[in-house]
Amino acid sequence: MKKLLFITGISLCVPFVFGHAIAEEKDKQLEILDAIEIHATRSQIKPENQTASYTVITREEIKKKKHMQVKDIIQEQLGVNVVQTGPLGSSTTLFMRGANSQSTLVMIDGVQVKTNSTGSFSFAHLQMDNIERIEILRGPQSTLWGADAVGGVINIVTRKGKGKPTHTLSFEGGSFETFKETLTSSGSHESFDYSLSASNTDSEGFSAFNERRGGTENDRYSNRTFSTRLGYNFLKDGRVEFIGRYIRARSHFDGFNPLTFTFSDTLPHHINNDTVYGALPLQKALTENWDLKITPSVFVDELDTIDPTFGDSFIINRTYTVDVQNNVYINKNISTVFGFEHQATNASNASQGIALQNENQGYYLQFQFNHDNRFLLNAGVREDINTRFANKFTYKIEAAYRFLETNTRLRGGFATGFRAPSVNEILFPFFGNPNIQPEETESFEIGVEQALLADRVSVAVTYFNMDLKNQIQPNPATFIAENIGRARSQGIETSVLWQVMDDIDVNAAYTWNQAVDSSTGALLVRRPRHTASATLHHTWRNLLDWLVTVQYRSAMVSGTGRVGGRAIVRAALGYQLTKQLKLTARGENLLNKQYEESLFFGTAGISGYAGFEYSFH
C-alpha cells in the first residue's frame, strides 16, 4: 500500500512541482512532445533513443513483403518463434525470448486482445488489412503494461488517413483455391481523417492432420475483416478517435481420438470465431508541455466449437479497459509518463460450467533522461492491485550511452515482470487450480549497436537472461496446474542491415535461445535454439520491387516428441504497370520443404499467389 501511495503521490505532484522549471525552460527546449500516440513505449522517444530492444515494422516493409497474415512477418523478427497447427485459420501461438505463449502481450491500437480463457492471443485470423506499422518491444514490460508482458509487447497500429481521399481495390488468388478481395479507402478533409478497410478471404486449405501421417480431407477457411480508424482534431491540439476492427472467421480442424491417442480426420470439426474490439481515445494538451490521453476500450471474442469427439462448446471472452496516460516534458533533458489503468475481464465456457470475473488496477510511473542524445536513462515502477491474487510491484531500469565519435551505442537494463494465470488454469475441470499464483520473472540484457561505412551498415547484438519462478505447469501425477516449476531463458539476438546500393538492401536476423526447465535441464516445448532470417530486396526505377527471404528454424520439442529443423524460401514482387495499377505475386516454400511446425500437424508445400492493386481518387 505504501508503494501505491508513493506512485500516486508522485504522479499527481509531478506537473506542479516542476511547473516553474517548465516555464523557465520554455524558450530553451529542443523538442516538445508531439501528440501522444498509442504505441509500445507510451512515449514519443525516437527509436534511435530507445533504451530497450525495439523493432518497428513499417508500412513500407509491410507492402514490399506482401504477407497475408501478421504472424508471417512477425516470424521473421528477432527473438520470436511462431507455431501454427495446420492451414489458414489453425491455432497460431507466439513465443518471445523463450517465454510462454501467454507471456507476450498483444495489442491492436493499444487494445489488449488476449483471450482470458487461455491467457494468450491467437494470430490465426489477424491479417494485414489496414495496418500502418507493427511495434515489437522485447523483454519484460510489466512496468508499463502490467500482467502478461513478460516476453515483451507487440502493438499493431492501424493506418491513419491523410491527404486527398484514395481508394484501393485489391485481389489475390492462388494455391489451395485461396482468394482474397480487399477494398480500402483513406484520406482527410480539414479536421477530419479516416481509414476504412473490408476484406473477404476463402481457402480450401489442406489437412490440418499431416497428410504424410494419414490426413485425407482439406480443412477449409473463411475470413471477413472490417477495420476503421476515424479521427477529428479540435481546439488546435485536441484529438478524438474511434478505432475498431471486426473479424468473423470459420475454420475446420481435425479431431483427436482419446482412446488411441491419435488424430482423426474422419469427423467434421469446425470453429466459428467472432472477434470485435473498439477504442475511443481522447487526447488534449493541458499545458504546452503536458499531454493527457484517456482511452476507454473493449475487446470481445466468441468461440463456437463443433467437436463430435469431445463435445461442442461456446466460449466468450470480454475485456473492458480505461487507461489514463500523462506525458510531461519537464525540461530539455527529462520527461515522464505516468497514469493508471482499470481493467475488468471475464470469461465463460458454458459446456464446462466455467465463469470467472476479475478486476485489476495498475498505477505506473516512468522517468526518461536524455543528455545530448549521448546518455539515456529510463526508470519506472508499477503497482497492480488485483481481485484474485496479491498486489504485484514491478520495476525496471534501462540505460544507453552513444559514442558519437565512433557511432557506437551500448545499452543494458534490468526488469521484473509477472504473468497472471488464465481462467482455464484456475477453473478448467481436472486441470484448473483455484489457488494458483502468478508467475514472476527477473530479466536483464546488455547490447551493443554499431554503424559502419557511413551508416550503410548497422549491426546490433543483444544478450538477454530471464529467470522465471512459480512457473505454471501441470503436475505430472495429477495433471492439475500448479506453481511447481522454475525456468531460465537466455539468448543472443543479432541483426545486420546493409544498404548495399541505393536500390539494394539486405536485412538479416539471428537468435540463439536456450530455454530450459531449471530443475531438469530439459528444453521447453516449442522453443528452438536457433532461428534466423535473411532478406535481399531490390527496387528498380520505382516500378519493380522484388525480394527473396530465407527463414530458418532448428529442431525443437513439440508435444510428446520433436519436430525437425527447416529452412524455407519465399519470394515476392510488385510491378507498377500504370499510375493506378500495380501487379503483385509471391511464392511460398519455393523449395517445397516437407516439415512440421507442431507434431502431427501439416504445413503448406510449394505454393504461389498473384493479384493486383488498383487505386483511384
Description:
With 617 residues, the chain is mainly β. It has a single domain (2-616), classed as TonB-dependent receptor, beta-barrel domain (Maltoporin, Chain A), CATH 2.40.170. The protein is 7% helix and 58% strand. It contains 6 helices and 32 strands. The chain has helices at 2-17, 19-25, 59-65, 70-74, 142-145, 423-427, and strands spanning 53-57, 80-84, 92-96, 104-108, 111-112, 131-138, 152-158, 166-174, 178-189, 192-203, 221-234, 238-257, 262-279, 282-287, 290-306, 313-329, 334-349, 354-371, 375-386, 392-403, 408-419, 439-452, 457-474, 481-501, 504-517, 530-540, 544-553, 556-558, 561-563, 566-576, 581-588, 607-616. The protein has a 23-stranded antiparallel sheet that branches. The chain starts with a helix and ends with a strand. Mean pLDDT is 89; it is low at 1-38.
In short:
By secondary structure, the protein is mainly beta. It contains 6 helices and 32 strands.
Q: Indicate the structural class.
A: mainly beta
Percent helix: under 10%
**Strand fraction:** over 45%
Tally of distinct domains: 1
Question: So, the CATH homologous superfamily?
Answer: TonB-dependent receptor, beta-barrel domain
Distance between the termini: 58 Å
Rg: 24 Å
Subcellular location: Cell outer membrane
Domain TonB-dependent receptor-like beta-barrel: 191-590
GO biological process, one term: cobalamin transport
Keywords: Cell outer membrane, Ion transport, Membrane, Signal, TonB box, Transmembrane, Transmembrane beta strand, Transport
